[in-house]
Amino acid sequence: MQAKISIEALSHEYFNPTTWQRVRALDGLSLTVAAGEFLCLVGPSGCGKSTLLNLVAGLARPTGGRILLDGRVVARPGRDRGMVFQEFAILPWRTVEGNIGHGLEIAGAPRRVKDETVRRYVALMGLGGFEHKYPHELSGGMRQRVAVARTLAADPEVVLMDEPFASLDAQTRNVMQEELVRIALGERKTIMFVTHSVDEAIILGDRVVVLTHRPGRLKASMPIDIPREARRWDVLGAEAGFVRYRQDIHRLIREEFDARAPAAGAVQA
Amino acid sequence: MNPPGRDQVPARRGWAAAAMGAAAGAGQAIAPFVFFTAAWALLVAVARWPEDVLPSPFAVGRAFGDVIAKGILPVYAGETVRRILVAAVTGIAIGIAAGFIMGLNDVTAGLLLPPLRFFQSLSGIAWLPLFLIWFGFSDKTIVVAVWYTLVFPVAFNTMLGVRTVPRLYRYAVLTLGGNWRQVVFQVLLPGAIPYIVGGVRLGIAYGWRALIAAEIVVGTGGLGYLIFKAETFHLTARIIAGMIVIGVLWYVTDYFFLRPLEEATIERWGLVYR
Amino acid sequence: MGTGLPVTAPPSPPAVASRPMWAARAGLPLVRGMISFGALFAVWYALTAGGWVKPFALASPVAVAGVLADGIRDRTLLGHLGISLARLVVGMAVAGSAGIALGMLVGISRALAIFVEPLAGFFNALSGIVWLPLAITWFGLTWKTVLFVIANGIFFTVFFNTLVGVRSVPRLYEHAILTLGASRWRMLRDVLFPGAFPGIVTGIRLGLGFGWRALIAAELVAVTQGLGFMIFSAANYLRTDIILAGILVIGIVAIAMDSLILVPIERATVLRWGMYQ
After folding, report:
1. How far apart are CA B185 and CA B177, in angstroms?
2. All structural domains of chain C
3. For a Cys-Cys bond, which of A30, B9, B80, C202 suits B223, CB 3.0-4.6 Å?
4. Per-block average pLDDT, block size 10, for chain B (274 residues)?
5. In angstroms, rounded to a whole number, what is the distance separating the alpha carbons of residues A172 and A179?
6. Of C5, C170, C231, the CB nearest to B129
7. Which residues in chain A are closer than 8 Å to B17, comparing Cβ atoms?
8. What CATH number matches the domain at A3-80+156-259, 2.60.40.2550, 3.40.50.300, 3.40.50.150, 3.20.20.150?
9. Does C194 touch chain A (CB under 8 A)?
10. Is the ipTM of this complex over 0.90?
């Protein structure tokens, strides 16, 4: 497989106005993501996972190193890299339909194509009957499904997901995870998925990458060798591999947690 | 949905940084005015309009010195301030009392609200012709018009504030053996204060404009009268000097008194119901 | 943010002066309204018909009704009303659109905000009727003077509320739309404008209220037509019946503007989007 995304010696510092300090979020991170790969990023909280996604999305410029997408340097946000945010971020003044079709509308897709795609994703996400509702009339789980559908409907080559299921209740989260496995299998997108849940990373990822504590560097990269069919919560527990992956990843994160220096990562302004 | 705000306010920082920020802020706030005045002076110098159409900033400065030297400005400004104070003190007191009655008693509120809403949508200025007949071209007419304008926002906001305090808190104090006086002063008043202050700010803002308008119409002294009278003598520089005084007076009142008051009360009590 | 006139600041409790939510909560508003307005009319009628108050101090409801009927029949009242409304509409159209446009612009551009905001704050503190003498100097006793005064008042109110509206749009929405490949124009049209809409509606609501008040005040002294002129000239002849009829019409217009124009707009947009907590 060829590299879809190449992250080369990536560093990033930003200014935190709350603490009045410069924060070094990433420090010389190198990583490649293959085309069609589902990559999960885990690490202790504050390890720069979200910063990494924002940089790949082009929402911020790295202060050091570079990111290549198909060999070209990423400089700004674009339609080729869709992103799903933790806080939903769907527009309150657009209906479910309006939100899901927004990407296609921006791309200038013909109406017929747009309507058809929206219908397909409404069905896929189980949003039938809610097409004309506004976000505030939906439950949290449904809103997040709209957000996922909006990103997928725009048909980006890369999907970036920043803890998209973190604020959902446990049941909804499990259902969404299984659905995402199914969709990822069908669409073969390149996905970078940030999570703090090890279980979630294992059920979703072709590979799980563990980052060090801030400033984030690559700690470990672990291919997950569980067949797609077995990635359902009702059968996954029986997989011997699952338990082992889980122990290994937890141990790696624990090491980082213990190694944390008191004021690590905070560079005085 | 309650999405996060766009600008996160710095929560904590060193005093040195804060002082530097304040200095930079002051500079930033003054610079546009300097630039604006310069542009104005340049415009007048180039266009050479007659002084009664648009006087230069220097002419306005001279006019300002003139009205101070002649003692007109201190007297008229004093008149204006006295009027707003009288109207504000009485208006706020009555507005709060009325707001409490409406806030506590739903039947009274239901009966009083429809006509009050109608009266509130009229400014005191609309009543000015009637007040003129009743009280003549006098100070009383002006104060009553301002009072009328000011009292409604205070009353309505107080009512809303009282209603916002959960009934449970009242019962809690009563079951602890408290009496109604304690309920009012320890539960309702503190709970309603952010709203009351909001109403006061709104009321004084409305009242201030009504005051200037009433002074223009009635013509018995005050800053509104000063600028209107200057118009009849084509003393445009004096008009602008008067306008600046009116603007600065309001700006100072709002910026150094009303807004800090509002922010302080919201900060201290506002979080209770979030 | 600038100072001056009530820009309803987002974190503070809502200013009631403009929101009819208490009206909805009052319950059976029609019945209660009829009772209280009926009582008010009864007292008014008793005072005037009983001879306790002389007609030149307070005209009776019957006399006021007579003025209203005559004014509608011979179209004098309708004429004054029409002229006042036309002035307000023109003022709102000009100043409202300018206020929205500039508010959006300043909301987007930080550099512009640093320069414009302090100035606008001061002029906002100085807006409306204060400009009347200067406007008379420039435009004489004409409709231009009235228009200048009300447009001035409306502009700053709409401007500041639009600004507050734009700034309350979460950055997250912008980021989300950027990752869908949106252009700047798209961002403005699909995110910032609708996001600022609650602020814009509040601005228009307050602006109409201020504009209408400033209009009546300006008409008292500056022109020879319009409702303000009608009631002020009636004062010279101690015609309290005409004054009260004028006041009634002024109040009804103010309430009608809110409940017939703004409330429906709000229902169709801001409330439907769930953007009031």
Report:
1. 15
2. 64-271 (1.10.3720.10)
3. B80
4. 40 60 75 92 89 91 93 93 93 92 84 85 89 91 93 91 81 78 80 87 89 91 93 92 93 84 66 35
5. 10
6. C231
7. 20
8. 3.40.50.300
9. yes
10. no
